[in-house]
Design a protein that fits this description.
Layout (H helix, E strand, L loop, with lengths): L14 H9 L10 E3 L4 E6 L4 H13 L7 E6 L4 E6 L6 H4 L5 H18 L18 H6 L8 H12 L4 H17 L7
Length: 191
């Protein structure tokens, strides 16, 4: 018979025991990496190399006045890391989004914009994450990563590409402005 998680014993559980209780708890409906431990606590699963970055980001957001759940305990093993934290009551944004009216959508957008503005004030001595300095990006690693054993020419091309990169929207706007200017200024007509 499987034991149920008891919140009052959180500090008394051994790490292996707590890890077993977490994975045997029901996962959240929207993601399999979040587990419902009790009415007040959840556990989030991370790669062991990512948990320090997640904790530092949560700490910085809290220092900047952005509310978030408190982390109660952290456990790590070779395969996974878990943070046990307070549960934030309410509906998740991905579920509530479909039901929001236009006014609430605008208000939420303004609040998220304020959070981004606050977070942009944080500087880091490294180019990557706040805690480890490691850069994890879908665009740089998975899709446009350098092939193994790349030579100097490939590395230079890679950096030139990203240094000169412009978004599709920006490229279209610059092309339409160029087209507009060429129609107004004709080499055959003197003004």
């Amino acid at each position: 018979m499987a034991l149920a998680f008891r919140e009052e014993l959180l500090e008394g559980y051994a790490d292996f025991e707590l890890a077993h209780l977490i994975v045997s708890s029901p996962s959240c409906a929207s993601t399999s990496r979040v587990f419902n431990l009790s009415s007040n606590l959840i556990a989030k699963q991370y790669e062991p190399s990512e948990v320090e970055d997640a904790l530092k980001a949560t700490e910085v957001a809290s220092q900047l006045g952005i509310c978030g759940p408190s982390v109660r305990k952290i456990i790590k093993n070779e395969e996974n890391a878990y943070t046990i934290m307070d549960r934030a009551e309410g509906t998740t944004l991905d579920v509530a989004w479909k039901e929001l009216g236009w006014f609430m959508t605008v208000m939420l957008g303004l609040q998220l914009r304020r959070f981004v503005k606050i977070l942009r004030t944080v500087t880091s001595p490294t180019a990557g994450s706040l805690a480890t300095g490691e850069c994890r990006s879908f665009w740089l690693e998975d899709r446009y990563g350098l092939p193994a054993n790349s030579g100097p020419a490939e590395i230079a091309y890679f950096f030139r590409f990203w240094a000169n990169f412009t978004s599709c929207g920006e490229r279209c706007r610059s092309q339409s402005n160029l087209k507009y200017r060429t129609h107004r200024i004709s080499p055959w007509r003197c003004h």
